[in-house]
Structure formats: structure tokens, C-alpha cells
Amino acid sequence: METTPFQFTNNTPLSLSPNFILPEENRPILSEVFSSASIPTIDLNNHDIDDLVSKISQACEKYGFFQIINHGVPKELCQRVLAVVTEFFQLPPEERAQFLTTDHRKLVKVFNYYQKVEGQGKVLMWGETFTHPWHPTENFTHFLPTNPPQYREVFTEYAREIGGLMDRLLSLMSQGLGLEKDCLKRKLGERPATYTQANYYPPCPDPELTMGLPAHNDISALVVLLQMEGVSGLQVVIDGKWVPVEPVPDAFVVNIADQMQVLSNGRYKSVLHRAVTNNRLARLSLPMFYAPNNDTVIGPIEDLIDEVHPPMYRNYSYKEYMDEFYRQEGARRRVKEAFELQH
Ligand code: OGA
Ligand code: NI
Q1: Domain CATH code at residue 112
Q2: What residue stretches are annotated with the Fe2OG dioxygenase domain (predicted)?
Q3: Does residue 50 lie within any of the structural domains?
Q4: How many domains does the structure of the chain reveal?
């Protein structure tokens, strides 16, 4: 059986073997990370709906990323989900290895990200990822780990809460584009592909030589990410500079992904981001993704197209998009660019 390159259970520090070391031009320059700018934090407990819609749409247009507080998901549930996922990564590697695969068609899997580097082959990223669907819960619960024993129950409860939150965000984002409340959700289609991707980054002996996740845009439509308190690592580009997304207590990080950029005809931005490592503490992040299913046709929404705003992308099925994504595997993703229209 294949084994994972990481053993998180013993307390000896992991060593940075050559297959983790990126060539100089791909390394993060941490001294150039700019912490005086930040993405906005939006309070969802705001009864002035016009004000809330305008704050959200401005954040989606300018940053593509924001944090939300007072979102209604119980704090205690967020803590429990982080705890069971952390426990999963701390199981003996044989336990996690049963989910290890490089077959991207598998819905439930443990894998390691890599970058393809000229002359060096695949360079592994400093982290391990566990992915699985999250909706509708009754269709997938039986695929989830039985160890730790609370995983299924806690995750199912968490998925239900995040589903409700995503519906609310999609409605606010639709209104922010001047569309009917249910427009974005309808355009994203029936039977959406929803999956989570728990990322576990162990402490790294030299964070400037490697990366947790290389710079990328998310390929889905909408992302709600929960990160541990007290350990930063996620960074986004603001005005051409890398800026950290510092964990805000009891907040979620929300970001626009590629399908939403295309649907909104470029108004909402799917922004480049990455995860860097640190040499002191392990970090866990838990993004929940909402994407169309393979048969759904995605393209700029007609109401957002006029003479001043011609369509920026051609229509495509999500299957076509994903084929292009897999074709680019291991390289810096430029997926939606393949569907751009020139004017
Ligand atoms: C991702 C991602 C960032 C993080 O999983 O797509 O961007 O903070 N994760 O781990
Ligand atoms: Ni991402």
C-alpha cells in the first residue's frame, strides 16, 4: 500500500527532504508579505439589508475575499469540526492511507499537492489534504471515516449549517449584482458538486523553501473556509501584493471562485491566493466548496451583458472546464482564461 509522506503522530520534527524544495523562483518571499492591508470583515447580523448587500458586493468586486462574523453557525460546532478533522490527521498514517489515491475521480481521498517543476519533476507541497463531498449528507455519510468515531456525526451537522449559510451568501451576492435573490443559485444548477478539502500543514523546518499550497484561484463557485485561530498561513493578493488573512475569532473566510467570476461577467473577482507554512505550529484549514455539476452550462448571466459590458467568457459545461483543469494539473492554473472572449 502507498503511504503518505507525513507522519504527524511522532513528535520528532519533519525534515525537509529535497522532494519538497521548490526552485528559487517558486518560493514565497515572506519578508515581502504586506500586513498593513487586509480583506474586509463583514457582520452578517445587519438588519439594514441594503447596507449588507452593498458591503458584500463591494468586497466581492474589490477583493474577492472577505471574512464574516455573526454568521449564525454555532462556535461550539466549528470547534468540534476542527477537532475531529485534526484528530483524523493525527491518526497513524496507515489509517489515513486507506483513503490515499492519485485517482481524481475518487470522491473521498487523501492526497498531497505538488507542482511540476522543469527538470525536477514533481515537487511536493508541505501539507496533506483530505477531500470528500458534503451535500446532500445522506448520500455520502457512509463514505466518511469511522475513525475518529465522531467524524460522521459532527461533519453532517456542520455540512447542514454551511449549506444554509451558502444559500444566504448566494442570495446576498445575487442581490449585489442587481439580480433576483435566487438567480446565482439557479444558474449554478441542480445537484451542485459540493466538497470539502481539509488541509493540514505540519510545522515546516524552513517555510521559505516550500509552500503549503501554491498560488491558485479556486475553480468552484463559492468557498466558505474555516481556519484555526492563532495560526496564519493563508495569503491573498491585494493590489499586486501578498497579504495575510489573519484568523478573526469566530469568523469564516468567504471567497469568490472562478465560476462566480464567469457568471458575474467579471464583476466578482476570483482572486489568487496561497498557503504558506511556519516553523512553529501545525495549521488546519477547512474550506467548503460549492460548484456546479458536470452538465451545468456556465457563462455570463444575460442580464449582466450589454453594449458596455460585452460577455467576457464563452459558455461552457462544467465538464469542459474540469477537463481543462486536469490538463493543467501541477502547473499554475489558468483555467477560466481558456474560455475568455476577445473584444
Ligand atoms: C484551498 C485553499 C487555503 C488555506 O484549499 O483551496 O486555498 O488556508 N486553502 O489552507
Ligand atoms: Ni484555494
Answers
A1: 2.60.120.330
A2: 192-292
A3: yes
A4: 1
